[in-house]
Specification:
Structural class: mainly alpha
Strand content: under 5%
Number of helices: 2
Order of helices and strands: HH
Radius of gyration: 12 Å
Largest sheet: none
Distance between the termini: 19 Å
Shape: flat
Length: 44
């Protein structure tokens, strides 16, 4: 079970990195889309 927690943390960290890069590059629409997609994925 611990490996699943590690994997989940890695995915969240990667997601945060992508969103931060989009915002730094003024890709607010891309960041917004990424956030919305991740919310939908986590609901499943």
């Amino acid at each position: 079970m611990k490996s699943m927690d590690t994997l989940r943390k890695f995915k969240i960290s990667s997601l945060a990195h992508v969103i931060n890069e989009d915002v730094r590059n003024r890709g607010f629409d891309c960041a917004h889309e990424t956030i919305n997609e991740s919310i939908e994925e986590r609901k499943l």
